[in-house]
Fold:
Amino acid sequence: MGSEGHTDGTVGKALDILDMVARHDRPARFSELLASGPFPKATLYRFLQTLTNQGMLTYDADRGTYALGVRLVRLAHAAWSQSSLAPIALPYLDELAAETGETIHLAQMDQGQVLYVDKRNAARPVEMFAQAGKIGPAYCTGVGKAMLAFLPDEALDHALARQSFHRHTDHTLDTPARLKAELQAIRARGHAFDREEHEPGIICCAAPILTRSGRVIGALSVTSTTARTTLAALEERSGRIKQVAARIGAEAESWRFPEQG
Amino acid sequence: MGSEGHTDGTVGKALDILDMVARHDRPARFSELLASGPFPKATLYRFLQTLTNQGMLTYDADRGTYALGVRLVRLAHAAWSQSSLAPIALPYLDELAAETGETIHLAQMDQGQVLYVDKRNAARPVEMFAQAGKIGPAYCTGVGKAMLAFLPDEALDHALARQSFHRHTDHTLDTPARLKAELQAIRARGHAFDREEHEPGIICCAAPILTRSGRVIGALSVTSTTARTTLAALEERSGRIKQVAARIGAEAESWRFPEQG
DNA sequence: CCGTTTGGTTCCATTATGTGAAACTTAGTC
DNA sequence: GACTAAGTTTCACATAATGGAACCAAACGG
Structure:
């Protein structure tokens, strides 16, 4: 939330430090971390020791820098496998990718942001962690808007409060009001577009993945470029996209579904 | 040394619990977790609350189960990007995959086990988290043996002590003695084979990725099947594999982060 | 229906643990 | 050789974790 409240005790602080290290997107020096957080020297030092000990961080003795550790990659693999969405969606994404020849994204909502959990890339052969786990804005991406549109009021407000509404392109919906109007349209038609709102030349058509009870558990998109296709052509696929999203939703529900953040 | 009993205080315990949840490969009930760890009810309960609060776990209210949370996926992405190996190796893997048409693995050593950090799959189009983050045994895989062979003595002993030496196939080197002999041969020729030691029909040729000072930072392999090729044919590629491994090693070592210009 | 078990949540006195200012030790600079 | 920045250790103190026990709520069973 805007005004950080609880630190959840010692564990919360340790996790905050992990985030601090993650935010600095290159390995960080002790002093950099000291500057970028509210922790006193000795405290920070002890935490870094503990986390390094635990394999959550790695310490490069030569450079005196800390980076996130491999234990996280291991845990994330388990998280992915346990997730009620990504493993189930896997074969469907393959199918859709083969069928469309376009880039496919699978995303979830995480703290008001879009978190990509899987991807099929039209152009290159494979990219793995390089792409999954990436986060993006919700208010100006297809998957983001598709999910926002089906969020219950309270959750929506919470999420909207976290959007930056930065004007990435001329098409970006850069006010809550404009976005809300768009969300209503999305709710009505059941799918969302990205009309070059995030990056120039990039367009997409996205559908939310819902449980039968109507809860959003993720979103699915087919992405392309204005050079290769048009929004109208993408919309022709919307029926199919929604069909796949519905199937994933149904299968995910019948299995197990974790509470969403 | 060996098996230190330390839990690294509160943070260590919290992380132990994450591991416990990860080990149960389906969402776990409170009682299951209670049974599978040394924690008293109240303590476990508090930890689960905190971790859920922090997004490291998700709680499914309907089923009363805990699973690993999305925050881990996010952190793992950052870990991958910050790593001095995987992002650097990316283009080389693409190149090698295109060139050989075979499956490529990139692995690191983690607690005596092989941790796969990237992959190019010959057959299917793409699998992301589904494959990366996976762990495997060191003593009976090409990448594992390639890394073990170049480990300093003390680290090798540590790693060997953690091997199960389970006899997966008739070809598995199932004693430390046999493995040590093999490691010497690997050291001599600079590359390792997997002669169907882990899975029948699966063979590979692997090379360690070393820094100039000789420290192992990972390994690279080209994997195939006995149906498609032979070990001799794979060995013909060994020169190229070692060349790529050497380039990755050199680049990983020389890479300085922006500020150091 | 009511006693009992199972599975989960809350209390709270006790003390182990984490805390952080300050002192200390390098390593680097002028 | 004095000065500064960066990292490490100490230690008196108080916060925060601990876990036994009590509690609650379903499900079970007789």
Remarks:
- The longest strand of chain B covers residues 216-225.
- The first helix of chain B runs from residue 9 to 23.
